[in-house]
Fold this sequence. Notes:
This protein is of the alpha+beta class and 288 residues long. The chain has 9 helices and 10 strands. Helices cover 33% and strands 28% of the residues. The two termini are 29 Å apart.
Amino acid sequence: xxxxxxxxxxxxxxxxxxxxxxxxxxxxxxxxxxxxxxxxxxxxxxxxxxxxxxxxxxxxxxxxxxxxxxxxxxxxxxxxxxxxxxxxxxxxxxxxxxxxxxxxxxxxxxxxxxxxxxxxxxxxxxxxxxxxxxxxxxxxxxxxxxxxxxxxxxxxxxxxxxxxxxxxxxxxxxxxxxxxxxxxxxxxxxxxxxxxxxxxxxxxxxxxxxxxxxxxxxxxxxxxxxxxxxxxxxxxxxxxxxxxxxxxxxxxxxxxxxxxxxxxxxxxxxxxxxxxxxxxxxxxxxxx
Length: 288
């Protein structure tokens, strides 16, 4: 076996409600996570050295990172002797964009390690690894064997209920020329919640029903959007442009800074992207 190639798909959030800070420092959320066909690639090969050695084509990663944390958690929960691996990470998902790239990379590495070590992890083992790695990792751990899927997500991210993905929608992603700090985004939301400011959201038990509607009828919201638009005026402007370009629905993914517009027509999506591309870096993607 020369190497294993795994794709790590990005996700977007349809509705993201952030609730009050928990006693353990995390926040509870209510959201729909949906994978899209934007991805990183991981080439994972066995090495005689013990450890996880990561090379990335576009980012300088610290020695301890999401991938090394996932690697350590995998061997901790399985009790197997550590097998050294070298990971060549080719980024296609913008870092700091709210698309879950790092978390998806971690889940992709676990899929590769499971093949290398010939083990099948149960849900408890997957959740242990996710808890040691990152809140969004829970969702990616419970995607299908190719790393794709759609789910209702709650708790800190650890409560994942798979639902069927829609295949009839097209997304235009807009990538602002800056990344959003997750820490900063949560601090802004904490201030907002401390003041008693909270919009009305779709009840969690009704999220899937809302998701099945025409996107023009969606009442989804993202708690982070108004806070970050207040800090970064370009975000508000780009959202307005997305709406004017014909998007049936538009919002920000995760804690930003990536924005998306949802379209029921591929032709309208392409026209919107052509308009936005004069100002922004954009991509047209499908749901998976």
